[in-house]
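Subject: for your reference before the review

Hello V.,

The reviewers asked for a structural picture of the protein, and I figured it would be easier to keep everything in one thread rather than splitting it across files. Below is the amino acid sequence we used in the manuscript, unchanged from the supplementary table.
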Amino acid sequence: MKTLLGQKVGMTRVADKFGRLVGATVIQATPNAVTLVRSQEKDGYTAMQLGYGEATHLHKPQQGQIAKANTKTGKYMIEVRTDGSDQAPALGSELTVETFSAGDIVNVVATSKGHGFAGTVKRHNFRIGPRSHGSMNQRRPGSIGAQQPQRVILGKRMGGHMGAERVTVKHLEVLDVLPQDNILIIKGAVPGIKGALVQISASPRHTAPKQEMPEGGAE
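And here is what came back from the structure prediction:
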């Protein structure tokens, strides 16, 4: 399974093959190192562990693991399951942005932006009440339940902590790959703040759907 760790740089606009400007996210993914390989015989399943970033301030077990892989990459680590039929990469080998190519469809996983405590209007798109004629209910949540069963039903939409959770955005298209700068340009937005750690994985739908030139040419 093609997987890579990187950091979100920010958003920009690029021209697609039809000359239209589309929003895109720039992700910098310096070479990842394979810090551990799991096998069916020894571990009961097949997987590989990827390391990203300069390995500094690690605990003793991680330091030993990095030394065994003979690499200096591994500040962040994730384990990715691999199909038993796939050829597992060698321990200590590197994976670069050239793992992907323009036109690939990927899924991106990251931690979304945190918004702190948010009310129902911002968190769940509740409508506000009238703002005139003495209205006392502009942004209040309203009733939270009936007389029975005399408790708040689980899953009730109310105010609370918003954001700062693991989010997956699926079926994004890789617009361009810049190996010299370790850059991936992905169409659309991905979760997280600038500098957030992101995981890019190949989607089961490996290639983008065929697009046709819109009527009237490029906008």
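For the response letter, the relevant points are probably these. The first strand starts at residue 3 and ends at 15. The chain is about 10% helix and 40% strand.

Happy to draft the paragraph if you're swamped.

O.
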